[in-house]
Write a structure and sequence with these properties.
The chain has two domains: 3-221 and 370-412, Crotonobetainyl-coa:carnitine coa-transferase, domain 1 (Rossmann fold); 250-335, formyl-coa transferase, domain 3 (2-Layer Sandwich). It has 17 helices and twelve strands. It has helices at 3-7, 26-36, 69-72, 88-99, 120-126, 151-157, 182-205, 215-221, 224-233, 267-277, 291-294, 298-310, 314-323, 334-338, 341-346, 387-395, 399-407; strands at 17-21, 40-45, 78-83, 103-106, 131-136, 209-214, 250-255, 258-263, 328-329, 349-353, 359-363, 411-412. The chain has a seven-stranded mixed β-sheet, with helices on both faces. A three-stranded antiparallel β-sheet has the order 7-8-9. Strand 10 (349-353) and strand 11 form a beta hairpin. The longest helix is centred in the middle third of the chain and has 24 residues, at 182-205. It is elongated. It starts with a helix and ends with a strand.
């Protein structure tokens, strides 16, 4: 396959152009999704600096870029143009690029782009079809709008950490953040969803719009059943470790050689699991007959089940549960799950090659679209490597003008 053919987008968003003025994770995660689905994403980076996450290591790539592995997780299927937006000449270049774009994604502080003429009001006046997504910690209005928002801060403020971790009275108890930057990632997902909805609206009406996404709003919305338990049932959510607040048993148990996970979702599964354990009388106990009884009596139930489960070897019990069509499994570490035959069969891990020949591995887009699947055209770019191509193709900047802009420090180009 030729390089040109390899770079031609085939996804459902092929033909869409995205101007990516974001950095770190929430915005880049959103634009990577759009790129996976076929959009042409132009990532604007500060000359000589680039995206902050290029330096968030170790580990780093052992190549000329020394880019951090963190950066690689959220920046494939993009072109990198190094343009100084703080210079009026650079801001003018970016504004002209926006004229040719369908979508802008940015995560500057509220009002931060207005002084450069890159805010929604300015750009939508010259491109009314533009869909402009602003991602901030707390949104474009409200008493917190001028605060900076970071994932760890949002996880705590949103209430998520109040329900994550071991109970206070257990060893290691206390608030705990999730092991990935979940607030950033989910905001990126919701941003992509909102952009797709706005594209549908534009298809019907011809008009673009502004999308205001806040990490705090998004993470609070993700409290889901826990918030509903409180709002509609008066139940104050609390930390339960690996237990479920509503469904029991739905937790980890210790076998003779290690822990397993048991995730039973209904009374039929509970009875079948008890039969497997040799505890056939347990479901007849009025306390455990249905989930409405098992949940408030979980400690008594666990006292009955733990000795029976502890007699099993973990592999044998998981196999027995699988044969009985009961949901169970083990806690994998990351090397094990990446090598798992199911993950291999699904093609989740993708191999890509950067423009300098450096090989990188990425985790692919999980949705399997039967007609317009996600594609993987561009490995995460080195900072500024596409500056010349972007300015020449979109704005007609010739070599002489390009050299003058480099000399003035307005743009930068990575040498190949």
């Amino acid at each position: 396959m030729s390089a040109a053919a390899a770079e031609k987008p085939t996804g459902p968003l092929a033909g869409m152009k995205v101007l990516d003025l974001s950095r770190v994770l929430a915005g880049p995660w959103c634009t990577q999704i759009l790129g996976d689905l076929g959009a042409d994403v132009i990532k604007i980076e500060q000359p000589g600096q680039g995206d902050d996450t290029r330096r968030w290591g170790p580990p780093f790539l052992e190549d000329g870029s020394k880019d951090a592995a963190y950066y690689l997780c959220a920046n494939r299927n993009k072109k990198s143009a190094a343009i100084n937006l703080a210079d009026p000449r650079g801001a003018d270049l970016i504004q002209r690029i926006a004229l040719d774009c369908d979508i802008v994604v940015e995560n500057f502080r509220v009002g931060g782009l207005a002084k450069y003429g890159l805010d929604y009001a300015t750009l939508s006046a010259i491109n009314p079809r533009l869909i402009y997504c602003s991602i901030t910690g707390f949104g474009q209005d409200g008493p917190y709008k001028d605060r900076g928002g970071y994932d760890f801060l949002i996880q705590g403020m949103s209430g998520l950490m109040s329900i994550t971790g071991r109970p206070d009275d257990e060893p290691g108890g206390g608030p705990m953040k999730v092991g990935i930057p979940v607030s950033d990632l989910v905001t990126g997902l919701y941003s992509a969803i909102a952009i797709l909805a706005a594209l549908n609206h534009r298809d019907r009406t011809g008009e673009g719009q502004h999308i205001d996404m806040a990490l705090l709003d998004t993470q609070v919305s993700m409290l889901a059943n826990q918030a509903s338990n409180y709002m509609n049932g008066g139940m104050l959510p609390r930390r339960l470790g690996n237990e479920h607040p509503n469904t029991v048993p739905y937790q980890d148990f210790a076998c003779a050689d290690g822990d397993i996970l048991v995730a039973l979702g209904n009374d039929r599964q509970f009875r079948s699991f008890c039969d497997l354990l040799g505890l056939s009388d347990l479901p007849d106990d009025p306390r455990f007959r249905d989930n409405g009884g098992r949940s408030p009596n979980r400690h008594a139930l666990q006292a009955e089940m733990r000795p029976a489960i502890a007699k099993w070897r973990s592999g044998d019990l998981i196999a027995a549960m699988e044969a009985a069509k009961l949901p169970g499994g083990r806690v994998n570490d990351i090397p094990h799950i990446l090598a798992d035959p199911q993950i291999v069969a699904r093609g989740v891990v993708r191999d890509m090659v950067r423009s300098d020949g450096t090989e990188v591995k990425v985790l692919g887009f999980p949705g399997k679209l039967s007609k317009t699947p996600a594609d993987y055209r561009h490995a995460p770019p080195r900072s500024g490597e596409d500056t010349r191509t972007v300015l020449a193709d979109l704005l007609g900047v010739d070599d002489q003008r390009f050299a003058a802009l480099i000399e003035a420090g307005v743009i930068a180009e990575r040498l190949h």
